Amino acid sequence: MKAIQRIHHSSAMHWVGNGFPVRSVFDYNGLGRELSPFLLLDYAAPHPFPPGKEKRGVGAHPHKGFETVTVAYQGELEHRDSSGGGGKIGPGDVQWMTAGKGIVHEEFHSQDFTRNGGNLQMVQLWVNLRAKDKSAPPRYQTLLQKDIPTVPFADDAGSLRIIAGQYGVQPGAAQTYSPINLWDISLHAHKTITLPLPEGHTSAFLVLKGLVTVNDEGDARDGELVIFKRDGDSITIHAQSNTQLLLMDGEPLNEPIVGHGPFVMNTRAEIDQAFEEFEKGHMGSLEDE
Q1: Alpha carbons 154 and 195: distance in angstroms, whole number
Q2: Are 156 and 149 in contact (CB under 8 A)?
Q3: 289: how many CB neighbours lie within 10 A of its CB?
Q4: Across-strand partners of 61?
Q5: What does the alpha-carbon distance between residue 222 and residue 192 come to, in Å, rounded to a whole number?
Q6: How far is residue 77's CA from residue 86's CA, in Å, rounded to a whole number?
């Protein structure tokens, strides 16, 4: 069994643009250096937005060297990028954007959500790319709720959605560059599950709702990240209340991490080159709508 390494508390809420009130769970200058291949995790806990007309979100900005994964639980987001990718995601949907050799994108609340208002809840995870894949062509995947496989647990304990990777013999929805499991887990109160996880992988989960006891070692609640040691091949979770978790598990890349702002590479020289490429327009641009 993978023992708990630590239970980490998220930061206080801050705004990203004018549309995303998030808690920084970890980033590449801190825990992200220990949690390879995962670089950054932001969590926007449920937040009410009134009906309005103002465009809310984050305007055009670049990325290079990794992938962004946005999981929507409440509300709607619209995405556009310089590779021609884009789409709208709502509750249960996921967007998986590979920045690769460089991309410019924007993320805003959808027009309908802006006009009608409502609660927004989402997670954004940054997944690192191996050095050989940091020059990959940009790619965008819209993973709609209906296309994400769901596996029920025994004894009516809940269910697991396979966003990426595999659970048992069932593969997930996303295409990934390295071995990654990303599972969206719902547990019913007073139920217990044991999850198989690969020996040697980085494994952690974020509690989105509820209270759980893990391996009979410790409790975790909303906004807390449970990080496991890499030795072992399973974890046990007991739900003390109805619970939702996002579990991330991946093979460590064991490569240098040098990040600055929207770019994550392997050397400082590559970061300087990324800024130069962006300034010269080599990552593309977005036409005004």
Answers
A1: 12
A2: no
A3: 5
A4: 105
A5: 18
A6: 10
C-alpha 259, offset from chain centre: 18
Judge contact between 185 and 245, C-beta under 8 A: yes
- Does residue 11 surpass a pLDDT of 90? no
pLDDT (tens digit per residue) in 65-99? 999 999 999 999 999 999 999 999 999 999 999 99
pLDDT above 80 (res 162): yes
What residue type is assigned to position 29 of the chain?
Answer: N
Token pair of 207, please? Answer: 């509690």
- Please indicate, yes or no, whether the overall pTM of this predicted structure exceeds 0.70: yes
Residue 288 confidence (pLDDT): 60
218 residue type, one letter: G
Instruction: Check: CB of residue 130 under 8 Å from CB of residue 107.
Output: no
DSSP strands (E only) in 4-102: 4-9, 13-16, 20-26, 38-49, 57-63, 66-74, 77-81, 86-89, 94-98
Q: How far apart are CA 31 and CA 168, in angstroms?
A: 29
Helix (H, G, I), strand (E, B), or coil: what is residue 253? coil
Distance CA 283, CA 179 (A): 27
Report which DSSP code applies to 11. P
Q: What is the pLDDT of residue 80?
A: 95
Element containing residue 127 per DSSP (H, E)? strand 118-128
